Amino acid sequence: MGDNKLHVLKGIDAHIREGELVSIMGSSGSGKSTLLNILGILDNYDSGEYLLNNTLVKDLSETKAAHYRNQFIGFVFQSFNLVSFKNAMENVALPLYYKGISRKKRNLMALEYLDKMGLRNWAEHMPNELSGGQKQRVAIARALITQPKVILADEPTGALDSVTSLEVMNILKDVNRQGITVIIVTHEKDISEMTQRVIRLRDGVIEN
Amino acid sequence: MFDLDKWHEIYLTLSRNKLRTFLTALGVSWGIFMLIIMLGAGKGLENGVMQGFGDFATNSLYVWTDGTTVPYKGLPAGRYFNLNNGDIDLLKRNVPEIETLAPRNQLNGYSEGNNVTYNNKAGTFEVYGDYPDFMKIQPKKLMQGRFLNDKDLKDSRKVAVIGKRVCDVLFAKDASPIGKYILINGVYFQVIGLFTTTGTSGMSARETEAIYIPFSTFQNAFHYGNIVGWFAITAKPEYKASMVEEKVKDVLKKSHQIAPNDDRAFGSYNSEKEFGQMTGVFSGIRWLTVFVGGATLLAGVIGISNIMLIIIKERTKEIGIKRALGATPANIMVQVMLESVILTFVAGYFGLVAGVGLLELVAWGLIEFQVEAEMFSNPSVDLAVALKALAALVVAGITAGLIPAYRTTKIKPVEALRAE
What we know:
- The complex is a heterodimer of chains A (about 210) and B (about 425).
- By secondary structure, chain A is α/β, with parallel strands linked by helices.
- Chain A has seven helices and eight strands.
- In chain A, the strands form two sheets. Chain A has a six-stranded mixed sheet, sandwiched between helices. In chain A, strands 2-3 form a two-stranded antiparallel ribbon.
- In chain A, strand 7 (about 195-200) and strand 8 (about 205) form a beta hairpin.
- By secondary structure, chain B is an alpha+beta fold.
- Chain B is built from 14 helices and 14 strands.
- In chain B, strands 1, 3, 4, 5, 6, 7, 8, 9, 10, 11, 13 and 14 form a twelve-stranded mixed sheet that branches. Chain B has a two-stranded antiparallel ribbon with strand order 2-12.
- The two termini of chain B are about 35 Å apart.
């Protein structure tokens, strides 16, 4: 990983097909977050190849990486990572802003996606006025609005109670059913059991 | 393209910590305020002093005789001699660089007690014998009547132009002196004009304690023969007064049998030097102003730069989120730069307005309450300077934003997202 010669991942050979719903499991320190960062083009890797949509993603410039992230990948985080001073609609619309889509158009699209999440009435609310489940649904709407190839979800239910977790997982499964690849990083067994395939990581290598 | 979100975000960022933003902005406001005030005050000082000069020709020079200091052609050192009427034509012929040549004589009013009387009132004034051309060298403001003319000179008329102070001393209030006869050293002169000065300094006030009579009359009436006390000369605009001064002295040396190396035989005064000195002083003041004001401004700008760094630190996570969502480093940089420029510009603008406002207030006060400040008049900054200051602010804002903006490109999205 760049300057520090700490080898977290020690040889990952995996293929995730388009339209799959996959979970990556592992205890902390297993390298699952690092793998997710590489998949999300948030981080670089030293050796090997990462093909996203048949394109080699390696040593991209920051600008290019930002462009790919915007185009192909939607992120869902454990701590939601909504921008605190923007309301739900503006948060959902944010990725479109970086695509250069006009304010009017992107806000309309944002409302549409919020509607799909059942949050139409919460569009004008600020993140601190929403419950955890609502925040995560806003985040999912934000991840979906650019119509990405892949949704990368990093512990999407980590901060939620079991009922809300189930709701969120059902939404992600719905998303997957529309043909979008969904990759969920989790350490919860019941979450991973809801996915089609589980990739188990231990000490930087894939188990089994 | 007008991007509402961008501006909204700038507003939100800057208004999130109002006190901090205000204090930071104050640094820049104060810097530009001081710069403007100092420039304006410097200009006021310059205006004041230059007004003291009045219309006094700034390329004028004066030449008179002292004693010789070098023996020459059998003549001893320490010889005293006088300029005379013959020198007038000689100079006109041999020094074409001269624009105006005015021979002058003066009665030593102070040493002779009361020398001018009208009816039962008397006063001591300086009495000059002058050519009409002298008005071109030290213009006076005529209040009544006229100044000397060529006919007065040619006919050696016994006429006098008196200064305002002379009139105040000799004549009753509101009485016109024109046409009255005043007695100067036992000779009657008819008053034909009354003048005041265009300058404002104390020196100028004294100038109104003077009486001008025709040069020819002066020589006749006070037994000066063909003696010329001194020459007042202006150089043509394209020539330097100092150069003309040298040439005049050389011509006079020849006609009066003075050794060519006798530099002290003639005394002279050259307003160009003094004027040049003044101009030098003011340009020095201006540079000092720009330096001190600029440094103050720089301190303010560094303050902004610092605050921007702190703001970025606080927003690391938000920047990380945006980067993950597809914001390029350039997107973020532009945002930071804009914030910095806006903050600097708005702050600077208020400082500018406050500074110009204060200057205007002072200028208004000086006129409204008729403050006769001898060395200070009409403090102001011209529009060009104000605009330059504004342009400097924008550049300063960009500079202030540069380091913080560059810093944002070093933020890695992963690290930013990890930051809690």
